[in-house]
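Please discuss these two lines.
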Amino acid sequence: MRISILTFDAFNDLDSLVAFGMLNRIALLGDKNWQVRIASPTPRITSMNGLTIDAHEDLSQLAQADAVLVGSGMKTREVANTPALMDPLRVLNPARQLLAAQCSGTYLLGRLGLLGGTPACTDLTSRPWVVESGVDVVPRAFAAHGNVATAGGCLASQYLVAWLIARLKGLDAAREVLHYFAPVGEKQEFIDRALGHVLPTLETQAAAA
């Protein structure tokens, strides 16, 4: 199972790295086939806060991913208006991949025509121009329709992670990961809140199937 976290220069550290850490819990538990990789158009990328990291793969590998998470950043609109960066993303396909986007990452999925006109989430800063692009933004932390999920707010990473793991590994695995990362003394509350967002979308997906 391969998950790519799409990360551009001036990326939001929390969006990409919280998800990266939480998703990698599955590999740390012993699943050797579970791979979480930072995908970027350049070998190294620097976050909006000055943290420089190495990418694991370039954008040519996105078609091979089982799931792609699109993080946000300060240059998202610049990315969206750069054909050399957007063209490689046109391989993304919700018919055979899970797609998740956080904050301004929702804008990229919208520009790629991958939201299908369904309600989506983004952060408050990005909301005005995401709305202007034609995306139906709803004031919620998480939304999922079919194989596409969106979230709004840096700490909404947990909802995208829970959704991805529940879809790819099952609810028990999602609960274990949420429990591990939850604050002491608040673990059940943390799990219940996250799955409260995710479970209804899974039930809708099961009914549709």
